[in-house]
């Protein structure tokens, strides 16, 4: 992935979600879940770091805490843009803060978003794809058996982190804040219930999404897999490992991706995602805002009743369905 902004690109914005960080009450339980999901979990000093197989990049950092909580978000930007972010945040009156305890590093720029979540902008390589993933043909050739025997394939292993969805009290305010500070751009939304934002330097339909809740939290992390078959096999993989609660297989409307959500031990989700819409750099993307009942999912089973419940604020009622 590229380390410098493309020549002629004058606008400033982050290009990637570098990693996200959580606190969880049981690191060993987290290891079991994410290894079953198909990620590589490596122990640090009191932490658990999540990698995709074949990649040296750390996508998530977990550390022990009294409950599952979103700890911080780290975004990557081009080196020549860091001073522009400093100037922008100063003009917006956004106060700089120190990096939180347990952060991977304290470099770059740290501040808190409007809901108090620590946010880092650091120099780093671009992790978002530069082109849309090539899709293998769905139809197999004639005169051969196209499905392998069950159990004769290796485990489903995601290739990269695609996006995360944050639960927030005010979706339009969160979108406006992340647009003004990080340079993210609105892709689509459904009223004030859910909104999806992408990075301007070429990214999936959403890098960060926001859904309305009574408080803040991480609803899910989404991980890219190469085929729709991997979505179905991933669902079975998690169920065989004892993680039977989830949602899918289905297909979303906004973003278009096929999905299966596996619920983790603390009520949030890890999503297998395939064939999400892609917004190339320089594309004029016109956001839409379809009604809630026509924008959540194109097909699939009904979601669990508590799918949008914010378990980081468990005393609060179930939030509205995601867009």
UniProtKB/TrEMBL annotation:
**VOC domain residues:** 16-124, 160-275
Read off the InterPro entries from this record: Glyas_Bleomycin-R_OHBP_Dase, Glyas_Fos-R_dOase_dom, Glyoxalase_1_CS, GlyoxalaseI/FosfomycinResist, VOC_core
Keywords attached to this Swiss-Prot or TrEMBL record, sorted alphabetically, are: Metal-binding
The record's section on SUPFAM superfamilies has:
Glyoxalase/Bleomycin resistance protein/Dihydroxybiphenyl dioxygenase
Any Pfam family from its record, for instance, is Glyoxalase
- PROSITE patterns referenced in this protein's UniProt entry, alphabetically: GLYOXALASE_I_1, VOC
Signal sequence interval, chain numbering: none
Name the domain of life this protein comes from.
Answer: Bacteria
The protein's name in its UniProt record? VOC family protein
Question: Can you name the source organism?
Answer: Novosphingobium aquae
Give the organism's phylogenetic lineage.
Answer: Bacteria, Pseudomonadati, Pseudomonadota, Alphaproteobacteria, Sphingomonadales
